[in-house]
Amino acid sequence: MRSGLAVLILLLFIIFSYRNGRNLLLLASSIVVNLLIALFSIKLLGVSIHLYTLAGLTISFGLLIDNAIIMLDHLNRKSENKISTAILGASLTTILALLLVFLLPEEDQQNLAEFCIAVAITLATSIGVAIFFVPACYSLLFSRINQQKKLPLKNLRTQATWFKRYTRLITFLNQYKKTVATALVLSFGLPVFLLPAKWDGQNWYNTTIGSEVYQESIRPYTDKVLGGALRLFVRNVYERSGYRTPEKTRLYVNATLPHGHTLKDMDQLLQKIEQYLKTVTGIDKYITHVASGEYGRIEITFQQLYETGTLPYQLKNRLIAQSLDLGGAEWSIYGVGRGFSNSTGESLPNFRVEMRGYNYPELEKQADLLAKELLAHKRIQKVNTNERLSWNEKSVDELTLQIDQLSVGMQGITPLQATRALTQSSQTNYPAIRLPFKNEPLPVFIQPADGNQFSTYQLLHNQFWVNNISFRLANMAQLTKQRTANAIHKEDRQYIRLVAFDYYGSFQFGDKYLTEVLDRITPQLPAGYTAKKTSWGFNWNKTKRQYSLLLLLVAGIFILSTILFEGFKFSWYIILSIPASYIGLFLSFGWFDFYFDQGGYAAFVLLGGLVVNSTIFIVNDLVQLKRSNNRTILKIVTRKLKPIFLTILSTCLGLVPFLIGGQTEVFWFALAVGSIGGLLISLVFTTLLLPTLLFKTTKH
Predict the structure, then answer these.
(1) Among the four 86, 199, 233, 450, which has the fewest Cβ within 10 Å?
(2) pLDDT tier at 530, thresholds 50, 70, 90
(3) Three-state secondary structure call for residue 292
(4) Is 660 a residue whose pLDDT tops 90?
(5) Which residue(s) pair with 334 in the sheet?
(6) What are phi and psi of 437, to 5 degrees?
(7) Residue 345 φ/ψ, nearest 5 degrees
(8) Does CATH number 3.30.70.1280 belong to domain 360-500?
(9) C-alpha distance from residue 135 to each of 82, 176, 500 (Å)
């Protein structure tokens, strides 16, 4: 539906822009040929035709028109300059941006790989169509028609008047070129707002930027003035962004019971919720997962008629009321609106180190050594050497008996003998023997009659005997209560132990200190033992890698521009259009409070390849001139304004149908919002800032 709407909008746009019948026929035929070749190429390469592929073809429909429009405008003007280089460079930069998706991790590519392949193939075929097919059809359709019709005198006067006004504006801006450049930089923003309040060990920093005067009186203003659109985006948008999956509306009901409950207990609890769900009209299905006696979940989906209405929100509120009546369990209900949770459990630490090894006692010893190193920092107060591996796992309290080996030895016994004496008085957890019964081994437990009543007081103060030697543990051991995980984890024959702690200060400094400790501890670990940092959710290294690819994109476009135009001079102007367009993306999300997901990142990549096209078309004409003055520069810009405006507008119109679903639409809405905002700001850069930077200052 959206693909058809996008095609309809673009066709109406072409008809409105080109009222000449032959021009319309030429553009329509080039689009049909381009799409047929693209579909054949996609089929030949074995790319699957699905939702993402069709969306890619829809977006590329607006892009492939661009090359045909540029070539048609060039032919109508009968310009002597070569346009093929510009079309080739403009399309290759966009294809380069799209192919960057294959440098992302495999789990991040998902269906985006085929989306990018579809767009890249369509653009690649549009190059051949624009360079070969359009000129051939043009010569066939317009061979006997003189396109150089003289304009009426009134139109010529209007053009001359607007050209004079445009020249005055650019001349005025040229007088303040440094101010314009500074305004452009500040509009994008400097990352001064990311500077920390304090820097441990750096006195010069703490007495200047970290001083109370700067932090309280100066920083609120400098962050806003110098931060620009980047600060607005990072503070208001990026920090609450996330990855979303394009799924149906769902409600999740999570239940957690205390340690020690059975699968039957959890099943009986969730059945009470199921009995209520059976009475609700509009539910498509609900699936119950009973993972253990401590954790269970119900996943609810809705019928298509109800999933976009008020039923999910109403049902969530009813389930909250139901859960409050079912005491003894912790509930978490989320999926639409603000999530609900009545959990009062402890939070998970910010920093985690996963340690692995083949011997559990040795792994525990190494975890204690790491904890000792971490506790040397004054901002780390407590380290848990046996933290939970997941949110669903519950912590338990255990009593640990620490025997003083020296005191036991002075009694003439060993710690092993003392431990055996304890087991003879307490309840055992393991069978002493297995006897055959009906062809199956039957475990037999041997324990004292009063083993169930054996208390911690009796453990410390009762008298025990070993080889006619009596002793009391109160004199030689200490019983302590510790919080620990309720399971021992093992993977690939290696035990897993989690060392976790909170750092009271900046996350960056805590991460830096943890890295230093691990660099110092890791070489000292025994063979077969490892220690590495892990994260609960946000992966900074992964995010850093994604956005570092944008720098690779800029470098690739710079090299490509240098090769096409045989010099570095104009490549800098082409590259400058990329950060200028990002201002529009920042403001689109920051001002209108739209949600930023993986579609927003795709908009970053797509803009990097699209916005340079306008600059490339202008630079192409400048390069082919041996000498150029200010008047020539402005003539070239004004001649290219119409095709540049039409190409940008056609691309924006092709993205409009993806705005219909609102920001609840995963990926496509963020892609459309970011791309449209960046393309509109790039139009301001091309028409005002670029000619100002290209303008040559005359010396008096």
Answers:
(1) 450
(2) very high
(3) coil
(4) no
(5) 252
(6) -145, 115
(7) -70, 170
(8) no
(9) 13, 43, 68
Distance of alpha carbon 334 from alpha carbon 338, whole angstroms: 7
Check: CB of residue 587 under 8 Å from CB of residue 232: yes
* Type of residue found at 295: Y
Strand residue runs (E) in 378-523: 383-384, 395-403, 433-437, 440-444, 464-466, 469-471, 477-485, 489-491, 494-501
State pLDDT tens for residues 271-282: 999 999 999 989
For residue 233, give the nearest of 674, 664, 537, 689 by alpha carbon: 674
What three-state secondary structure class fits 438? Answer: coil
CA distance 19 to 16: 6
How many Cβ atoms are within 10 Å of 332's Cβ, its own excluded?
Answer: 17
If one counts every other C-beta atom within 10 angstroms of the C-beta of residue 35, the result is 19
Mean predicted confidence (pLDDT) in 262-279: 90
- Model confidence at 386, pLDDT cuts 50, 70, 90, reads confident
Contact in structure between 575 and 560 (CB atoms under 8 Å): no
Q: What is the DSSP letter of 130?
A: I
Q: Is the dihedral of CA 676, 681, 687, 693 positive or negative?
A: negative
Domain boundaries, the chain: 2-179+540-694, 189-236, 250-335, 360-500
Could you tell me what percentage of the chain is helix, strand and coil, using 3-state DSSP and rounding each to the nearest 5?
Answer: 60, 15, 30
For the 250-335 domain, the top CATH level (class) is alpha beta
> Over the stretch 172-225, which tens digit does the pLDDT of each residue have?
888 888 898 899 999 999 988 888 777 767 788 888 888 888 888 888 888 888
Asked if the domains 250-335 and 360-500 are classified in one and the same CATH topology, the answer is no
Please state, as a whole number, how many other Cβ atoms lie within 10 Å of the Cβ of residue 412.
11
Sign of the dihedral through C-alpha 331, 332, 335, 340: positive
pTM: 0.64
Spatial separation of the C-alpha atoms in residues 131 and 68, rounded to whole Å: 9
Tokens of 190: 């400097």
pLDDT at 146: 47
At residue 354, the pLDDT reads 92
* CB 404, CB 477: distance < 8 Å: yes
**Residue 487's closest CA among 199, 291, 205?**
291
Amino acid, res. 357:
G
3-state secondary structure 235-258: HHCHHHCCCCCCCCCEEEEEEECC
Residue that the structure tokens 């048609």 belong to: 72
Place of tokens 């033992």: 529
**Helix orientation angle between 507-521 and 360-374, rounded to the nearest 10 degrees:** 130
